[in-house]
Design brief:
about 150 residues
């Protein structure tokens, strides 16, 4: 789905201390993008993990997860050494936000993650701006925030 380092914002993988900055540069460069033609995503309706991994690829970060289309696989990679959980008070733009029960994933857009961008199921595009808990659309419980630590 994503080519490591291929077309990254700055070409090569970012140093660990610059990952979030590179992720936000990629979000800025890519803007809102369509997921309609993403393979294996039901015409972009089930493309939240795909969209996050597209941003990671643009930032020069290897795809997260053995199956980069599946939120539980992305979270398993983050838990297994590619990232670390952070609490809301430590959250920064560029962190990854995962909804309860691994039903959705997005990218934190500001400190504290009060704004999160993710794939819109209804629009099949990376355009949904919501809050930390995705407006309660995925169980209403607290989301988990991760910081990618290994590109």
């Amino acid at each position: 789905v994503c080519t490591p380092g291929g077309g990254g914002v700055n070409g090569s993988p970012p140093p660990s201390g610059q990952i979030n900055q590179r992720v936000m540069q990629a979000v800025s460069k890519m803007g809102s993008f369509s997921s309609k033609n993403a393979p294996g995503t039901d015409g972009g309706r089930l493309a939240c993990a795909w969209a996050v991994n597209q941003v990671m690829g643009q930032a020069g970060i290897r795809p997260l997860g053995d199956n980069p289309l599946y939120v539980p696989s992305v979270e398993a990679a983050l838990r297994s050494g590619r990232g670390q959980a952070v609490n809301t008070s430590q959250a920064q733009a560029g962190d990854i936000v995962i909804a309860p029960n691994q039903e959705h994933i997005g990218i934190c857009m500001n400190a504290g993650c009060s704004q999160v961008r993710s794939n819109s199921t209804s629009n099949s595009s990376f355009t949904w701006n919501s809050d930390l808990n995705f407006g309660g659309s995925y169980g209403g419980g607290p989301s988990t925030i991760y910081r990618v630590t290994k590109p």
